[in-house]
Structures are given as C-alpha cells and as structure tokens.
Amino acid sequence: MKKNVLKFIGLGMLVLGFQSCNDDFLEREPSQFITADQIADVAELNPDLVAGSIDGIYTVMFTSGSGGTGGHDDFGQKAYDIFSDMLCSDMALSNSVYGWYRASITEMQGTQDFTFGDNFQVWSYYYRQVLNANLAINTLGGEGADPEGANVRGLLGQTLASRAHSYFMLVQLFGDDYTPDAPCVPIYLADTAGSQPKSTQAEVYAQIEADLNRAIELLDGYNRSSKSQINQSVAKGILAYAIAAQRSRWDEVATLAQQARVESGTVLMPPTSDTFGILGGFNEVSNPSWMWGVDINENSGVGLVSWWGQVDFFSYSYAAVGDTKVMDEDLYLSMRADDVRRDQFFSTPGSNYLQPLFKQYDADRVPFGTSTLVKADYVYMRHAEMILLQAEAEAKQGLDAQARTTLKLLADNRISDTSYIDALSGAALQDEIYMQTRWELWGEGKSYFAMKRNQATIVRGANHLSFVGQPIPWNDNRLTFEIPAREIQDNPNINTQN
C-alpha cells in the first residue's frame, strides 16, 4: 500500500510540475487543484506513470497479509479459492494439526459469527482491491474517461475489470443465494465519498456488468505483457461467470464463454504427461491452456503463507506435516474408472489419501520441499472452465445436442469412453456437466460458484472431519460470510439488522 501511495504522490508532483511550465494548460484549468482531466492528460503522455499502480493490484493478489491479518490463511486470491472449495466441501480437511481452516471454515463457525477474523479478512481483501482500482480509475481520468492511446485504454480496462472481479467475489461470498432485491454489500466507486449502505444484489451485479462491458470495449486490441494482466478474453470470462450467477440469460453466457476461450489463443490441456499433472500442467503459467495466471518466482517472496504452503505436499507446507487438504472421497469415487483425472490424486488409503500429488505440486517433487520459497505459479482462469461454462449454459437453454458436443470437447480428453454422454438430456445432462466441472476444476476455486449456479445440495464424504453425510443446500447461510464486526462498528449505514 505504501508503494501505491508513493506512486500517486509522485504523479501529483509531476502534474504540478507539468502545469508550472505550460501556460495554455493553466489557462484551461485555472485551479490550484489537480483535476481528473489533468491527471488523465499526463497518463496519456506517459502511461508508465499509472501502470505501476495497476501492477500493484495484481501483486496484492498473491501477497501474504493482504486481507489485513497475520494469519497463514491470508495470502490473496488463492486464499479465498481454498475458503470456497472447503465451504462447498469438494476440498476436505482430512487431518488437522495446526488448526488452520478447521473451526472457522470447515466447521462453519466463522460464517455464523461476525466476530471471527475470516469474515474481516475476506471483506478487507476485496474492498482493498476495490479501493486500489478506484484510485487508479481516478488517476486515469475517472469513470467516464475515454482515453485515445491504446495503452491507457488498456490500463483503464484492466482496472474496471479488476474492480468487477472483486465485487463478483463479494456478492458471491456474502450473499446466501441470488435474490435480486436482497441487500448485500456496499458499492464504492471512484467518486464515492464516505461510508455507504448495502446495495441490493441486482445493483451490485448491474455495476459488475457495467464495469466489464466497458472493460471489454477498452481492452479491444490490447496486447498484455504477461498473463498476470486481465485482457479482453479474461474480462469476457469474468462477465460470463457474473451473468451465470444470476441464473438467466444463458445465451449470453454461452456466447461469452465461447468467445473467451477461442479468442484467448489458449488450448485445452491434453491428458499427456508433459502438460496434464505429472510434468506441471497446474504449476506453470506458460502452459498454453492458462488464460490468466501469475509467474511466482524467487523474487516474488511467496513462501509458506501461500496456496502451495497450505495444499501442496511437495512444498515447504502444512500439507506435508499433517494438515492435509484432499478431494472429497465421494467426489473422487464418483469419477469413472477410465477418467484420467483420478490419477491426479493419491489413491492408496493412508496419510496421503486423495491429496493432489499428481495435479498441483512443486516441480522438484521433494516431500516438504527443498526451499521455503515457492516457485510454482498460480492459475486464475484456464481454457477448460470456459468449455464447461459454455456447455452448462447451452444445457440450461435446452440445447442438449449442442451442450453434449461442447462437453465432449473436454470429456473426450479425460475419459476413454464417453458414449454414455450421448444418452443424456435435460436434468441428467446438466448434472453431468456439473460433476465434470467439479472433477476438472478441483482446487481451483470454481466449484463454489458452480454449486450456487446449479442450486446443488452437498453431502460430505467420509474423509471430512465434520458434518460427514449431512446434506447442506447451496443457500445455507453457513456457506457465506458475515459482514465483519469491524465494518458494522465503523460504518453507520450498516448494522446487524439491515
């Protein structure tokens, strides 16, 4: 955060210097204050002045403590991928030594008690990202700016898409079910002043869609410098998820998901050892199937407090010393015997049973790791999930033949004999797509959204430490976070009743 502040101070000083030596500029803007238009003009002249601030948004996505705590479950976006995978129960905590995730998340105490720190952590992280985005939007000239330069247009597009992504996560994680008129979370925009009351879910989704549609327009033709940045394809993927979460307009979802994967230039990860599991399909950002991800290297400063530090047996990690995170046993057993995805998990009962030893792992493959620094990368979006979302949207329109064809783009690369899919239609086909989504995207933070979209009831398998065998519906309020006590204390527009 200090780096961002310094960047804005430096930008302001540069604008003042620019004003002092340009009489025409001063005549047009006779004020001692720096206006949004003036800042936007400087951004047009030198986009690098703003790019660093936007890069900071991406850095926060893998920074420990970015949720405002010192917890070892606080490390940016992938922290909440674990939270959501555990809440929907596809990721089981099968053994607990150090206690991370057990009471608050897997026993769902935190999601029922607003004084638990995890509520504050999730809230703090995403609103921090909203604030960072709003600061950058102001720097780029404000909400209504229409930059001429392709680089500045790309920067504004990325920032709007980032803000939309944060609001999407907030409305999903703090809303029990999609109920348009239900108050949910406050909206803060670049020109918002003071504490805000809750907006309805309909209002939040409207803002998400507005930001993403504008981002898609601005990102047209923009060539990003790395996969850590949001480009037009990623923005379309986020928009597809946001519309799908409202369980309507499935034709738009199908179109956006198809465009996202096709226009991204990515390909489906084939089930071969050099890309799928055994040699790093899920730990290397250069993989041609990844649409959005970040290169984690020794200079990133990522260590034990990370996704890898919590889940990977081959990193210096909790998972190697007793806090095992594994696939739900019933979910594993539901895969067909000829499904290659079964091979991603250690299938021999025992201490490592159903850990993702052949899916997500440090490339050195040394138990407990050879270094406290993480070198394996983070994936945020990949080609396969857009195939699955497209198939789901087609099935929910009743386009069963089309949905089967789309689903087989993936299934034919995972299962030896997919002829059984040819006989599926209606609810059975939708159920199959939902299961394929869970099998394919385990550990990637997407199953929670699928559970809500499909209004599914989850039943935990025998390898969980709590609630085994108990049905938990998608709209159970134990599956969503509470607005934290600190926000209720500090924001006079929010209380426990509204």
Structure description:
- There is one protein chain.
- The protein is mainly alpha-helical.
- The protein is globular and about 60 Å long.
- α7 packs antiparallel against α8 and α11 runs antiparallel to α14.
- Helix content is 45%, strand content 5%.
- The protein has a two-stranded antiparallel sheet with strand order 1-5.
- The protein has a domain of 273 residues: Serine Threonine Protein Phosphatase 5, Tetratricopeptide repeat.
- It contains 18 helices and 8 strands.
Architecture blueprint of SSEs:
Layout lengths: L1 H19 L2 H6 L7 H10 L2 H13 L16 H11 L3 E3 L8 H5 L10 H23 L10 H25 L8 E3 L13 E2 H18 L13 H13 L5 H15 L25 E5 L12 H5 L13 E3 L1 H5 L44 E5 H14 L3 H12 L14 H15 L6 H7 L3 E3 L11 E3 L11 H6 L8
Antiparallel strand pairs: 1-5, 2-3, 4-6, 7-8
Helix pairs in contact: 1-4, 4-7, 4-8, 7-8, 8-9, 8-10, 9-10, 10-11, 11-14, 14-15, 14-16, 15-16
Amount of helix: 40-55%
Report the β-strand fraction as a percent range.
5-15%
Mass-distribution shape: globular
Number of helices: 18
Which runs of at least 5 residues are low in confidence (pLDDT < 50)?
1-35
| CATH fold call of one domain | Serine Threonine Protein Phosphatase 5, Tetratricopeptide repeat
Structural class: mainly alpha
CATH hierarchy: architecture of one domain: Alpha Horseshoe
CATH class of one domain: Mainly Alpha
Topology as a string of helices (H) and strands (E): HHHHHEHHHEEHHHEHEHEHHHHEEH
Average pLDDT: 90
Concise description?
The protein has helices at residues 2-20, 23-28, 36-45, 48-60, 77-87, 102-106, 117-139, 150-174, 201-218, 232-244, 250-264, 307-311, 329-333, 383-396, 400-411, 426-440, 447-453, 485-490, and strands at residues 91-93, 183-185, 199-200, 290-294, 325-327, 378-382, 457-459, 471-473.
